Amino acid sequence: MVSPGALRVVRCGGGGQRGARAVFSADSYLLYASGDFVKVHSVNTEETLLLLCGHADLVTGIQLNPHNHMQLYSSSLDGTLKLWDFMDGIPIKTFTVGPKLLALYVLASAEDSVFVVVPKKGERDTFQLVSVKLTKGAGQDLEGKELSVVLDGVGASPKQIAFGREDSYVVSVKDVNLQVYFFKLKLLNRFSLSTAKTKGGDNSFSCVVCHPTEDCIATGHADGKIRLWRNFHHKKAYTYSALHWHHDTVMDLAYSLEGTRLLSGGVESVLVQWHNESSCQKDFLPRLGSPIECISMSSDGVLCCTLHTDNRISIINSNLRFSRSIQGLIKSRDVKTGLVVDPRTKALVLNGEPGHLQFYSLQSDQQLFSLDIVQRQYIHQAGLKQSELVKVAFSAQGTWLATVEESEEVADPELQLKLWFYSEETQSFALNTRINTPHDNHITDMCFRDMAELGDDSLILVTTGRDCVFKVWVMVEDSDPEAHQSVSWSCDFVGGYHNYQATNCCFSEDGSLLAVSFEETVTVWDSLTWELKCTFCHPPGNIRNICFGRLTCSKYLIGATDYGFLCCWNLLTCALEWSAHLNVVVLQPDPLSEHIAAVSWLSKESSLFVFKPSEPWPIYIQRNLCKEKILLAAFVPRDEPEMISSEKYCWLRKSQLFFLTDTQELMTLSTKSLEERLTPSSKQLAVEESLPMTPFSVLLGKHRRQQAQEDTDLGKPVVHNKQEQASPAVKELLHTPAHVLPSASFLCTIFINSLLISKENKSAEEVADEVEMESEKAEDDSDEEDVTAMEQEDASHMELLGEMTCKLSKSQEKELRKIRKMDYSWISAF
Amino acid sequence: MAAYKPVVVQACPKLGEKITQDTLYWRGYKTPVQIKEFGAINKIDFSPVPPYNYAVTASSRIHIYGRYSQEPIKTFSRFRDAAYCATYRDDGRLLAAGSEDGSICLFDVSGKAPLRQFEGHTKPVHLVGFLSDKYRIFSGGDDYSSKLWDIPSATEMISYSEHTDYVRCGCASKVNADVFITGSYDHTVKVFDARTKSSVMTIEHGHPVESVLLFPSGGLLVSAGGRYVKVWDVLKGGQLLVSLKNHHKTVTCLCLNSSGQRLLSGSLDRHVKIYSTTSYKVVHSFNYATSILSLALSPEDETIVVGMTNGVLNVKHRKPEEKNENSQKKIQPAYRTYVKGRSYMPKQEDFCVSKPVKRVLRKYDKLLRSFQSSKALDAVLEPPIMLHTPEVTVAVMQELHRRGTLRSALAGRDEKQVNLLLTFVARRVIEPRFTSVLVIVADMITDIYQPVVGQSAIVDKQFLKLQQAIGKEIDYQEELLEVLGMMDTLFATFTKKRDTCLEENKSNGVTEIIETNRNY
């Protein structure tokens, strides 16, 4: 049951790691910072096990506690340090430091202090490395205000500071300067490279690491060189040697456990392994997919992992074999395809890796698969203009996929239109037709005629281009029986209007009308004869978006213009029905209802308006949806309609609205309250099968057997069995770690109550009722689960069931049942 | 992590005719053998029995050729004037021919002198044939009559004079021994039954009939005359089934292939067209040097013999079927002894680990994978690739351009290599599928080698050639645009004007422009 409350914007994917290195725990978990959270992954199964949340801003650094391998320090831009028990996902301590923390270093030798990078007070863009004394105290929230400056003028990135052998010195690099501070000697040595720009580009530092056993510093440079510094105790007599393979900035370096191997990575997305610090012995792991941002080694040296710029993590064996990758929503440089929903899998489809289309499952926060569209080797090099995927469209059943790719060259774009057919055998899309240069200029929009009832024969694809025409593509049967495929696509009709650039196209719901916008004008065409039926325009301003109304509002055509007008035309009277002054960025119709969502952008805030075309006033307005600019939106149909009691939010009943912001974070709107969504769950760590055989479980088993016996005696085993499995109080007891459970005295009553057999004198009718209730409950659960992956099991579960087991009187219970029954039938009417 | 993706070579659909099973079949003939005869060849007829000799009627002689002989193995030359229409009997032992003087001669294939002579026609006899009972001959003459003769007694049995012009063609039914068909210059085809006194069916062809043909089943009749080949359904009383107009001069001869699936027609327009007898579409066509008068196909389609007006006999033999002996040789017993467990069949419970498939990369792909641009370009400039698969060369050039290394790959080449490059560019730059890439390449080459122009005569010549090629192409394009303009004007005058202005609706204060122009 969803309680009426304000809609909240919930993040459900995306976000960057922003340069914090990942950490391997001692027992094959991988921890990494992702936005405001720290994620705990199992290395073996690639699954997200836990989400550590509690920071209010970006997490900038994570480090294992050197004195306790089950604990983790994390720092965040919100100025706090947190100590976590990452196995259970609970914060142990929170230290409030104050200023923004940009990086975190934890040393084994310094027991009660950690090092962080903070901005220098009063100066912009200068940072200092300070040590924070962690006070010991009993409570959870502690102060960490005792700061002592170690180094001044350090870089903001966590990769620009490293601690040397046995924590005896610290190295910091910035621009072309390297400084080494020896703790014991209290000696600060500074070295700098020549600033003269050689032809190889600038030689400023990008990252630094220290050899684990020797006095040696490895630094990466922007020109692709790696320098190995030795003898840096002496100001004059220091030496360095250079290794050069990378052609662009060395993004990160990592030493192996003994320091015999050095790993480096950069924009080329090649992991290079240097042996014995010699430039002739090196191994490569090429084509990792996207530029490498961070490299980290596991403590036993068996695995290493690379964090990539597109939010992907690759886990690599010590012999440079690619092992597996962890990927959620892949961040591409520019989402040009828009948010498209795959009708088959209900996955969100958008640009993924360069030249690929990613199918992202919203339910599991996982990439389902990545479809290679461009099918060319992508060269990771700055300044190259390579083919990009720009448009995607699915047919109504998802059997056909149309893609457009173009190279970024402005003058002579290399365009390709590809049509893919979903083959049931291979369960993937196979290329059917490739059309070179379908238009003479960039393609602006593309849509299929969605006629589900007529099948694939009526399938029509329309593309609009900046070459002032729109083209209609149809399937043609191949007459030659020996040909590989029976159908292919070819151009059927080319239309234009006064030599204006065609910008958008859209089919009406029944497929009889096609609306094409030409700069300021919307033209409506008959899709049978391709005759121009009528035109609309609302000067001044070019048409930015158009869409037809659906269901009861199918006689309306909605358009949004550059000059901030939202217009609704009536197709029967060919007249303007209403217009509103609104700077609409995104116009998105819900495929399952009449509602249309419009997102406007007004001076640094996005607002959401939901309206029906038949009424000029919106059903729902949410101002200040988020601070970032919303670029794209999509309605994703729910598997089953959600129960929303409030009339105000009834437009969310059948589909869910997702947004993508310009920082590539995926957001959605939820009616659920904050507590329900954000309560961390520990449920997933405990697996029922792995329960050890304890006296308690033996007792429990006995009890279960007894109950089963009683059930059979009563002659209704099925009903009781069902209830037994769902017995939540016991389950909750078993799944919650002991130290987070409430006191035993509180638990006792619930537990004992759950064991009681109180329903022996039930009539058959009541039993039936109960079955229904059970099924309702199950539905509720699934409802809550499928909203987003972020959503976890909640604590309200326990309350609900505790209440059910004992607290209600019989009359109350009956009334409640009645209400539930009513509720259920009402929803099924939809 | 992804594997290296090879360079995509754009496959262009071949323009022109599509390669079908038919084209492959009909192309499977050797280069023709030409034999010069004394005059126009009016009839070629294959003996229905092995070794499938064929009789060629030209001028006053009948030559019998063996299957592969270039010289006649036998000649019948006892004609005072031109001979016509030498035809074999079903058993291949007798041969009948008409002549200019109106007599019909019957020869034994092994003999020399005619066995019988049938006198009765007053004008030249252009049509002679055996009925399928083997004992009767039918004939048609320029005296408008068609006659039936008894072979043993050499007497005329019936004479029909229903045609009103020369009777020039005919054939006998294979199913019924009494039925034969004649076609005449009076535009009709008549079906005669020897048991009746008059024709049983008359079909209006519409043009002077040059050739007629009955299908083996006897149900369909094909007639050729004028530019038309028409197919009639005899069983439905001579209903027109289909009319084919694929020649642009008179069709002179018809022929069925051995399976009865294809119909061949020869014409004065120097073409032989092959139709499918199910769809009546042209599936293939042959080109000959001069106008075709006669045409014959040997059993099993082994030989196509075509006779021309200038007396040239064109003989095409089928290529022998290629045997795949090479594939059998590959399995060597010595190899088998080294591979153990090859014949092992995995059991159901076995867990199979398949060997990773090794992908074979082309040489240029290997070089591109290791970013060796110059060498990759060298690899595709080798003559076999450059000559036979120019699309590969262009694809690699495009890939290099995409990577931004095309200029450095083109630079630093010696005279010979620049010559090679320029030859390729000059030859291919006018092909539309390559133009966009090769224009860039040509630009770069001119840029890079501008300072050294004049030092090598060969390179200078190539530059001039390139200039010429481009200049010519520009001229062509201009001409094409002119033609396009002319055609546009023509089309514009043809299309109906349908400017029906719907009533303008200004109630919303918004101007609406309503047009119903179809824009192409």
TrEMBL record, chain A:
It comes from the Eukaryota. One of its GO terms (cellular component) is small-subunit processome. The keyword rRNA processing applies. Pfam families: Beta-prop_WDR75_1st (PF23869), Beta-prop_WDR75_2nd (PF23769). Its main location: nucleus. It is found in: Nucleus, Nucleolus. WD repeats lie at residues 52-94. Keywords: Nucleus, Repeat, Ribosome biogenesis, rRNA processing, Transcription, WD repeat. One of its GO terms (biological process) is positive regulation of transcription by RNA polymerase I. Residues 766-790 are annotated as: Disordered. GO terms for molecular function: RNA binding. Residues 339-664 form the WD repeat-containing protein 75 second beta-propeller domain. PANTHER family: WD REPEAT-CONTAINING PROTEIN 75. This is WDR75 protein. It comes from Loxia leucoptera. The lineage of its organism: Eukaryota, Metazoa, Chordata, Craniata, Vertebrata. The gene is Wdr75.
Automatic annotation (TrEMBL), chain B:
Ribosome biogenesis factor. Involved in nucleolar processing of pre-18S ribosomal RNA. Required for optimal pre-ribosomal RNA transcription by RNA polymerase I. Part of the small subunit (SSU) processome, first precursor of the small eukaryotic ribosomal subunit. During the assembly of the SSU processome in the nucleolus, many ribosome biogenesis factors, an RNA chaperone and ribosomal proteins associate with the nascent pre-rRNA and work in concert to generate RNA folding, modifications, rearrangements and cleavage as well as targeted degradation of pre-ribosomal RNA by the RNA exosome. Its main location: nucleus. It comes from Loxia leucoptera. The keyword Nucleus applies. One of its GO terms (cellular component) is nucleolus. SUPFAM superfamilies: WD40 repeat-like. InterPro entries: U3_snoRNA-assocProt_15_C (IPR018983), WD40/YVTN_repeat-like_dom_sf (IPR015943), WD40_repeat_CS (IPR019775), WD40_repeat_dom_sf (IPR036322), WD40_rpt (IPR001680). This is U3 small nucleolar RNA-associated protein 15 homolog. Keywords: Nucleus, Repeat, rRNA processing, WD repeat. GO terms for biological process: positive regulation of transcription by RNA polymerase I; rRNA processing. The gene is Utp15. It is found in: Nucleus, Nucleolus. Residues 344-490 form the U3 small nucleolar RNA-associated protein 15 C-terminal domain. The keyword Nucleus applies. WD repeats lie at residues 118-159, 244-285.
